[in-house]
Amino acid sequence: MKKIYLSKDKKLLGICAGVADYLNVDPTLIRIAVVCLALLTAVFPALVIYFVMSLVFPQAPADYVPSQPAKKLMKGSDKKLSGVCSGLANYFGIDATIVRLLFAVCVLFLGYGVMTYLVCLIMMPSDPVQIVTEGRYEN
Questions:
Q1: Which one-letter DSSP state was computed for residue 126?
Q2: Average pLDDT of span 49-77
Q3: Residue 6: helix, strand or coil by DSSP?
Q4: 54 with 6: CB under 8 angstroms?
Q5: How confident is the model over 110-131, as pLDDT tens digits?
Q6: Spatial CB neighbours of 3, under 8 Å, sequence gap ≥ 6
């Protein structure tokens, strides 16, 4: 039986990486969802839940080896602005046009599309292969 633990691959407390390991998804996806949820709920309720989870989740045993997700969430190469939509489309295996359309609907009608896009832009890593081919690689 699979158990959920606080991850050793942590940015803050290891909750997002632990949930990602349990669900076998990229931790970046969970981190983006948590930040967006925190911003949509005026931060405080999400922070309370986050810190309560850090008290409830057990520490990973010393011999625990986290699973590696099948895919990594990265900015895509099919850029219109920054590659966020194409990266999400690549991760979920759908057409980038659908993701762009969903972001447009969120921006125009729901009001949180810009915030979500900016969070993704900041948190999603760039593909290292893409950086090398664009000549932006630095040692």
A1: B
A2: 82
A3: strand
A4: yes
A5: 777 788 888 888 888 886 655 4
A6: 22, 58
How many CA atoms does the CB half-sphere of 36 hold within 13 Å?
19
Other beta carbons within 10 angstroms of residue 118's beta carbon come to: 14
Cα separation, 57 vs 59, whole angstroms:
7
Q: Which amino acid is at 73?
A: L
* One-letter amino acid of 69: P
Q: How many Å is the maximal CA-CA distance in the chain?
A: 49
| Locus of tokens 């969970």 | 30
3-state secondary structure of 29: helix
Do residues 54 and 65 make contact, with C-beta atoms less than 8 angstroms apart? no
- Model-wide pTM > 0.85: no
Ordered alpha helix ranges (H), the chain: 15-23, 27-40, 44-56, 84-92, 96-105, 113-123, 128-133
Alpha-carbon gap, residue 77 to 85, rounded angstroms: 10
